[in-house]
Amino acid sequence: MNHSKVGFGKSELNTEFLQKVMLGYGNPKHKMFGSTTNTYTRCLLWWDEENRPYAIFCFELAFITGLLYETLNKQIADSKILEKYNTKNRQIILLAQHTHTNIGGYSGEFLYNVPNGGLQIDVLKTIVDSAYKALHYALKNAKEQKLYWFDESIPKEELHFVFNRSIKAYKKNGEFKDFSRARATEEFDPRRAWDHRALMLIGASTEPLSERKSQETHKINGICHFFALHTNSLSNKYTYRHADHKGLTALQLESKDLVALLAQSYCGDNSPNSPFLISKNDRHNSKTLNEKHTQYLANKQFFYIEKSLQNFSNQIEKHPLNLLKSNCYVEECDLTNITIDDEFLPKDALTKSTVPPALGAAFIVGSPLDGPSGVPAFLANFLAQIANTFLKKGHLKKESHYFKGHYPKKIFIHPHFKFILHPLFEKLVPLLAIFDETMKLYKNQKMKNLHLELPWIPTKHFFQLLILGDVAIFTIPFEITTMAGSRLEKTLLKNLAQKNVKRVQVMPYANNFAGYITTHEEYDEQMYEGGHTVFGRNSLGALQTIAKKLSCL
Questions:
Q1: Closest residue by Cα to residue 110 from 534, 441, 456, 458
Q2: Is the pLDDT of residue 1 over 50?
Q3: One domain for residues 300 and 371
Q4: What average pLDDT score do residues 141-150 get?
Q5: Structural domain of residue 443, as residue ranges?
Q6: Do both 64 and 205 map to the same domain?
Q7: Quick check: 357 and 459 in contact, CB under 8 A?
Q8: Three-class SS of residue 16?
Q9: Cα 530 from Cα 311, distance rounded (Å)
């Protein structure tokens, strides 16, 4: 019952592109001058009862791009490595570990490639080849086994190695409005205010424990682990390729003869860089202390995962996924104009839909704890406020819906209209390029008309709802905050009850990338995450609307 062929594979992703820009921080000065660790692509592969293949890939990269997805999707189909593989069915899921210290330049969008000076075809090819090899090894190693799910939480008192970096916004969520002062004091401790659960998919085959065939044990061949911990422990001054803490944890686990896909969960507003563990100065200015801090985080995760695997082995009643009955529902849509279901529309909403993308002043400033850009907040906000005032009276005076949908964001970059701040600002770019590396790269790409030929960020996306018995997986091309992830998960659980689903995992950083998702309360604070929520204040409502629609198919 519930048996399927399951395979795990792993391939090196060693992007030896010295002096090319790493993607995570979007900083053209954050270049690769060497390598500290190898990086990898890992793959989980299985088949349903009609022999249709499904695969989850996990890359030690900052994020997935649409170009990467479509290129790999086509290569798998063209090679015919998998029978009954159909590119239109979206049978593969591409996840990124969100590693900030690996190469960039593999996007089909203008804005994401500015730090790298444009699309790097050699980088894209290297990443696709790595994924294809991982798939090949998964196919080669596939065998009859079960894929189990195991859910466990880390005790809250032990969560001191993670920190909510945007606690001011987190506190604004409606879930806390009736809390007593004592309860709020506990819930608003930044060391506790994040998702402490971990879901693990465990591939295990049953083998005889001894010559007495009545005694059996489970041989674990691979895992796919979802745990919320931002993979940016290495600072934007760390100039070496590095797999970060999740990559180090995976290598520790793989010493036990298994393949470990360590993916993300709702980590949008959490940080591994708790000031209780490492100071900003040490993280940014000491390579040795930065690496030591990263290894500490890896050791903590290894301890808890190893403990979970032991608890799984001791569990009498295990929970296999029904892989043979795998069902994947797909919704493709343009996120610039999604009408929000009334159930998910905030009472004080100024619009009833999402709006074309925009990036706020808070995005330009960066995360003060994890990746400050160096641009003062007062300056970014002042420039955006002045520019927005003139735009509303001039170039964009007919776009009131756009500004209402993004309110109270002070818009700094207008991807939909393809300019920064104001069209007049573009005339200053040649002058600014003399002093600023980003502006220099921006100017060079403008001279090639790439800013007009290419979309600035992706707006058309697809969402997958993969149902595997009593577990469902929902993919999103975003980073999502703790509370936004919780609300989306509850929406899915409510609407999937009819399908007997007991556990939902929202998979962020999946198949493409388009910034953040926050709750509308968090959005109103316009901290980094809100400034990077590109489709406006109703973005979470849009995902809930899509999730509800897919759940009812």
A1: 456
A2: no
A3: no
A4: 95
A5: 334-453
A6: yes
A7: yes
A8: coil
A9: 39
Q: How confident is the model at residue 493 (pLDDT cuts 50, 70, 90)?
A: very high
* 467 is a domain residue: no
Q: What is the pTM of this model?
A: 0.96
Mean pLDDT of 318-322: 92
Q: How buried is 510 (Cβ within 10 angstroms: 0-12 exposed, 13-18 middle, 19+ buried)?
A: buried
Cβ pair 405, 538 in contact under 8 A: yes
Share of the chain above pLDDT 70, in %: 97
Residue 509 DSSP code: S
Residue after which a domain boundary falls, among 453, 485, 520: 453
Q: Is 460 helix (H, G, I), strand (E, B) or coil?
A: strand
Q: Pick the closest to residue 330 from 117, 509, 546 (CA basis).
A: 546
Is 365 found in the same domain as 314?
no
Domain count for the chain, please give it. 2
What is the Cα–Cα distance from 160 to 162, expressed in whole angstroms? 6
Q: What is the amino acid identity at position 92?
A: I
* Residue ending a domain, choose from 389, 421, 453: 453
Do 277 and 348 fall into the same domain?
no
Question: 285 and 353 share a domain?
Answer: no
Give the residues across from 469 on adjacent strands. Answer: none
CA 345/CA 544 separation, integer angstroms: 10
Confidence class for position 129, pLDDT limits 50, 70, 90 = very high
